[in-house]
Design a protein that fits this description.
By secondary structure, the chain is mainly α. It has one domain (about 20-155). About 65% of the residues lie in helices and about 0% in strands. It has helices at about 10-15, 20-30, 35-50, 55-70, 75-85, 90-100, 120-140, 145-155. The longest helix is centred in the C-terminal third of the chain and has 19 residues, at about 120-140. The radius of gyration is 16 Å and the shape is globular. The model has no long low-confidence stretch (mean pLDDT about 95).
Length: about 160
């Protein structure tokens, strides 16, 4: 389905039209910058968790947002701790963990640096978005992937930013 004359947005549209929403999520997560992908994940995780987001979920999303607004090692490490408290298998925990993968070293302070694989942030966010869509679908949402993808497309178009 992909050919050289097809823009990324057009390819994404083809994936959605063909009913390949999971592939569309994976593609969009890689198309966005790491920061954009994390913001997209924040929006999706918040959507799936509301209106009764637990304190650890709220803290994980706040830590990710804090890093987006001021990317520092201190905020990255705060996101790491928040991810552990929320549980990295949860969408909010995965989003906070994606912050850890976005910059810096995976090793402990004082040890030789170990960079994360370049696509680990996008893989983590794609997984979080898929889980959000599954949770919303289980709760009765009829087109959860469509809504999740709309958020991502708004981010890609610069219409929805974290600043």
């Amino acid at each position: 389905m992909l050919h050289k004359d097809l823009s990324p947005k057009a390819f994404l549209d083809v994936l959605v039209q063909q009913g390949l929403q999971v592939d569309a999520v994976e593609f969009l997560a890689r198309l966005l910058t790491k920061e954009e992908a994390i913001w997209w994940g924040c929006m999706c995780a918040w959507d799936a968790a509301r209106p009764n987001a637990s304190p650890p979920v709220q803290a994980a999303l706040q830590a990710a947002l804090r890093w987006l607004q001021e990317p520092s090692e201190e905020h990255r490490r705060e996101a790491e701790q928040a991810a552990k408290r929320a549980g990295i298998a949860t969408p909010a925990g995965a989003v906070a963990q994606a912050v850890v993968f976005a910059q810096g070293s995976l090793s402990l302070p004082g040890l030789p640096e170990v960079p994360a694989p370049e696509d680990l942030t996008s893989q983590t966010i794609a997984g979080a978005v898929r889980v959000c869509a599954a949770q919303l679908g289980a709760a009765g949402e009829t087109l959860p992937y469509r809504r999740m993808l709309r958020y991502g497309l708004e981010v890609a178009a610069g219409k929805n930013r974290w600043q």
